[in-house]
Amino acid sequence: MWKRLFKLLTLYDVYLGKRFFLVFGAVTALFVFAFPYPILFAVAKACLLIASTLVIVDLMLLFNKGVRLSCQRKLPRKFSLGDLNTVAIDVHNHYALGLDITILDELPVEFQKRDLEIRDFIDKDEVKHFNYQLRPTVRGEYTFHDIHIFISSKLGLLRRRISQQAEQQILVYPSIVQMNRFSLMAVAKISTMKGVKKVRKLGSSYEFSQIRNYVKGDDYRSINWKATSRRNSLMVNQYEDERSQQIYSVIDKGRSMQMPFDGMSLLDYAINTALVISSVSLQKYDKAGLMTFSDKVGATIKAETGSKQLNLIIDTLYREKPRNLEANYELLYTATKKFIKRRSLIFLYTNFESFSAMQRVLPLLRRINSSHLLVVVFFENTEIVDYSNKEASTTEEIYYKTIASKFVEEKYRIVQELRQYGIQVILTRPEDLSVNSVNKYLEMKSRGMI
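Predicted structure:
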């Protein structure tokens, strides 16, 4: 009987609320106590009649013709990989009574999130706006499905489900949020953003900008004596950073870049940072280019300027996929020699887990560095670093901590070996990759190394 009742209620989108079970649980308890105390039997019957009447009233309130709710999901144009993206839902209550509502949004399967609930009260003829945030960790196309709203009256005995078809697709692109945030660094000479270093400029570049009036604090060596004699006031030459330098992001798509960190692969961290570096370099009037490789050369974009170049890089990075093979550095050297004709700054995003793995490719890295300014970017194994910093209390823990410390030291040994041959190095935690890469670019730019 009860199974048939629940099946019938579900068929008509009716669900029993918590108050229903509390009320009828209390009525059932009264009938139980009526056996030893017959005087309670009449009270139990009266309570059952009242509870049943309230259920019928609640059904009439929830299922009359005036009950109508509309909702709309609002998504941004694109989701940013690895960032919190805001999703908005607008609900309009067209009913003459206020309702308690619970919103369940059918999220894309990629999030594996089934506990998202939004509870609130919406008054009559009111429009309410609700927001929640999602963090995608994989690039691609995501599909949102229907929106379900469970409504209940002030009685709260029953709940009615109102479903609205709201299937929507959205693309998850490399982090546009990070790109916009770090692009602000290109506007000011010294950024005040958290994690960004202040770089003292050593000397000046040779690209002349203009002649202007002397201001206290200007370098005396930049005084233009001819202009000073003509104007009868101190004038100085102003220089600016050299422009139109070629900045290439070269990304290793091989097996070593598939290591996960905080739900994302190292490859996706590198892709986000490549987009940031491309945007910042274009803001600095340099030329941004891209190359990916693994066992074969992937996407290649020649270094150019302009907004179209950034859009091309974004679309290309969105389509890049990892490969389960080792990276071929001989192929990388050949490709850079053929594809990058002019001396350029190359950010090489890869990962070395052992000193021997780096030694195998060191001769090729030295050759690339002899023709270009090479910056090798690779990652700390954060779990091993954190484990090596823990205190050990047993012999087994001391043994494991010693092994972990050995792996950490090997990473720093790789850094020293690369720097010994004049190769610039960034060893970073994945979450700090973008800020450290931008710091390095601005530092080399200010020092006139490019």
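Summary: The chain is about 40% helix and 25% strand.
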